Amino acid sequence: MEALVPVQSAGQRLPVRLVSPSLHRCIGSVSIRRPVSGFAMDTRISSKTPSQFTIRAQQSLGVASSSSSSSVENDLRIKEWEVDMYQNELAISQGIRIRRKPPSKAPLGYSGPFELRLHNADSPTNILEEITWYKDQEVSRMKEVNPLEALKKAVENAPPTRDFVGALRMAHQRTGFPALIAEVKKASPSRGILKENFDPVEIAQAYERGGAACLSVLTDQKYFKGGFENLEAIRSAGVKCPLLCKEFIVDPWQIYYARTKGADAVLLIAAILTDLEITYLLKLCKKLGLATLVEVHDEREMGRVLGIEGIELVGINNRSLETFKVDISNTKKLLEGEHGRQIREKDMIVVGESGLFTPDDIAYVQAAGVKAVLVGESIVKQNDPEKGIAGLFGKNISHT
Question: One GO molecular-function annotation for this sequence (predicted)?
Fold first, then answer.
C-alpha cells in the first residue's frame, strides 16, 4: 500500500510518497515529531484501517502488540529515513549541492522510491561540505551541555541587541564609502593562521577606533580557530559596534546560543539552507531581535534569496566556499540586470565579501552597488589594524 505523507515545515505541508505495507497492517495513525537537520518537522501517516492506535516516536512503543513492535520500530526508522531523503531531494531541487549529512543506506527491508539511489560519495566533496558535516555533529554535542530550554531562559534575561542594519546605514551616510564590517578572524582553511599573536578583544577595539561600523566574529573553532568565547569577551569588554556571529548555522539551537553570547546578528548561508529553513530562521531571528546576513555565491542563490520576504542584508561572497577561489567580479555580475533592480526596489543593503585588499577593490564593488563590505584578512594581518583600515579605503574613516 502506498501513502502520501504530508511533511509540515515552517508552516508548509509537502507530500512524500512512502511505500511500506507492513506499517498499515499494524497501525492506523502515526504521529512522529522529530528534528530533520535540526528543524522541527511533523509527519503524519493515515490509512483507513480499523486500528485506532497512535504512536509517538518520543514515547514508548508499548501500545503496539509485542508481536508487531519490532516491525513497527523498523517501519518508523524507514519513514524517518525517507523523510531525510525527501529533505535532500528538496535541497537538490533548489540547486543546493552541499549535503547536510553523510549519505546513509536504507534501513533493512526498505522498498520504495529511493531504493535505486546510489550513494557512491561517502566522504565530503569540498571544504564547505566537510565543515557542514562536522558542524552537525558538533551542535549535537553542544546541545547536551546547553539544552535549548536553558538557552531560552538565558535569552529572556539577556540585554537588548544593537541595531546592526542601522549602524551600517549610518556609517555609509557618514563616510560616503561602503560601511565596514571588520572581521575578527585568526585563521581560515585556505590561508591557515592569519595572526599568531591573536587577541580578539584588542583587535576588536582597534577596529572600532579605526571606523568599523560593525564587527564579524568567527565562532568556528576547528576550521577558523575562533570560538563563542571570543564573541562573549568582545561584548563584555564594552565594544559598542554591533556584532555578527560568523558561524555555519545548521540548527535553530545555534541562533539561541549566539544570542546568549552577545550576538546582534547572525550569518545564514544559502548554499546549505533551503528556502523554508531560511524563512523559519528569519522569523526566529526577528523574534530574538537579531539581524540576519543572508549570504549568496551565485545567480541561482541570489534568485532564491530575492524570493524570500523579510531579508534586509544580502552578502555576496566572492570566494567559492567549494573551491575557495576568489573573484571580486562576482559581485558585479550578481548585481546586474533584474537582480540589481529588485535589490534597489527593496532597499536591501548588499555586503561585498572576500577578496577586498585595496582602495581600488572597494571602489569596484561600490560602483557595482554594495553599501557595506565585510573584510578580514587584509586588515587582521596588519600590525596596526587602524592603519590597515585607512589603507584599505585610501583615507581615514574613523570618527576622529
Answer: phosphoribosylanthranilate isomerase activity
